[in-house]
Specification:
alpha+beta; TolA/TonB C-terminal domain; Ferric Hydroxamate Uptake Protein, Chain A, domain 1; Immunoglobulin-like; 3 domains; 31% strand
Length: 345
């Protein structure tokens, strides 16, 4: 199931109704929902003509006749209903330098050295940190009974190692003392000319290069939502007038410009120069706060864009919807467009 631009539509209700029952008997419809890849599967349908009807909040209903069994998969395109909230544009160079590892991300965007981010570290699933670093050009790694030792090509001394912004000056630090999955990122500067001023040692220890390690700080444990709502649950809330849509209220929920949805641009897609779209939905409560249990992906051109959009909702704030002079809960859908700063590069 796809929406405009080929985005995958998640949580769409699909109802297949035989046009005739088996042997002339009662007609029994089958009801399913599309998965995270916009697909659905129906079994137990009698052979013959059937009608498929698709519904999804935010899209116009669609119907089509088909023959069962279908020789090929059924592909349906849904037309989107105009969104009450404007599209959020996410640039691939969005500047969001916050937290203890902000210097890592800031220097990575400047591009002076070589960088390995958390996403890449996890993808490699290496046993040792030196295994992550083996792909860095010009690096020689020696492993022995005493541990691992790193030298850059042409150097006669050890590189200076930094850990979370502090230099390890008491002697050579074996980077394998830290497990790869404990690292947020790694910076590598093979020559003194490329070492940033803030990573130089007090006595010129950066002469043979620098390796800066940033460890992960565990996220504070948050209480999870009491209930996680599916697209079907949200449709039921709207049908019961417990939650409203933008066209059912006098004043629709509006984004707070001081606390907007600000997703990160997925590293792998940024490196692959991949642009795309996503739509995320959730309920805004009467205080203008997203109800985290209701956050879900409506559509995405790539799953990673959907995840980035979903993860950014918790920090956003809104002015609540108003109906009959009172604030009410509203289901909102926010479209996001992920754009490349220099598409041709």
């Amino acid at each position: 199931m796809r929406g405009p631009g080929g985005t995958l539509v998640v949580g769409a209700e699909v109802v297949l109704t035989p046009q005739r029952g088996p042997g002339g008997g009662a007609v029994v419809a089958r009801r399913v929902f599309t998965d995270d890849e916009g697909r659905f599967r129906v079994t137990g349908m009698p052979n013959g003509k059937a009608t498929v009807a698709v519904r999804r909040i935010g899209y116009r209903p669609a119907t089509r006749d088909l023959d069962v069994p279908a020789t090929e998969g059924l592909a349906l395109a849904l037309d989107a209903v105009p969104q009450a909230l404007s599209t959020v544009v996410v640039k691939d160079r969005r500047v969001r330098y916050t937290g203890w590892a902000a210097p890592f991300y800031q220097r990575r965007d400047r591009g002076m050295g070589r960088y390995v981010g958390k996403e890449e570290i996890d993808r490699r699933n290496a046993m040792r940190t030196t295994d992550v670093l083996r792909v860095v050009p010009g690096m020689a790694i020696q492993t022995g009974m005493g541990g691992s030792r790193i030298r850059f090509r042409g150097s006669r001394c050890d590189p200076l190692v930094w850990i979370d912004g502090t230099p390890a000056l008491s002697g050579y630090f074996d980077v394998d003392n830290l497990q790869p999955n404990s690292l947020e990122g790694i910076e590598v500067y093979s020559g003194v000319a490329t070492v940033p001023v803030e990573l130089r040692g007090p006595r010129g220890e950066e002469a043979c290069g620098v390796i800066a390690l940033w460890t992960r700080v565990p996220e504070p444990r948050r209480k999870g939502p009491k209930k996680v709502y599916t697209a079907e649950d949200l449709a039921a809330l709207v049908a019961s007038a417990t939650v409203f849509t933008a066209d059912q209220v006098d004043q629709a929920a509006a984004a707070d410009s001081t606390n907007p949805i600000a997703p990160y641009y997925p590293d792998a897609l940024r490196r692959a120069r991949t642009a795309g779209d996503a739509v995320v939905e959730f309920v805004v409560d009467t205080a203008g706060v997203p109800e985290l249990g209701t956050v879900g992906i409506v559509a995405a051109s790539h799953p990673a864009f959907g995840v980035a959009a979903r993860d950014a909702v918790s920090s956003a704030r809104f002015s609540p919807a108003v109906k009959d002079g009172k604030p009410v809960r509203q289901l909102v859908q926010v479209p996001l467009k992920f754009e490349l700063t220099n598409p041709g590069s």
